[in-house]
Amino acid sequence: MKCFVLFDLKTETVGHQDVGQAKYMSYMPTLEELNKEIERQKEIFVEQNDS
Fold first, then answer.
1. What pLDDT shows up at residue 30?
2. What pTM, to 2 d.p., does this model score?
3. Of 10, 17, 48, 51, which has the fewest beta carbons less than 10 angstroms from its beta carbon?
4. Sign of CA dihedral 20, 24, 28, 32
């Protein structure tokens, strides 16, 4: 699973628009997407650890 951390450095006071922008930039995968990624990672693990 991939993870990204975003830092938004502000030079002025943070306002409502900034908070809204941060929410827009964040992404939360759906349960279906998470399950697909888990299955994909399991397959990779099996391939790498297959004797």
1. 86
2. 0.47
3. 51
4. positive
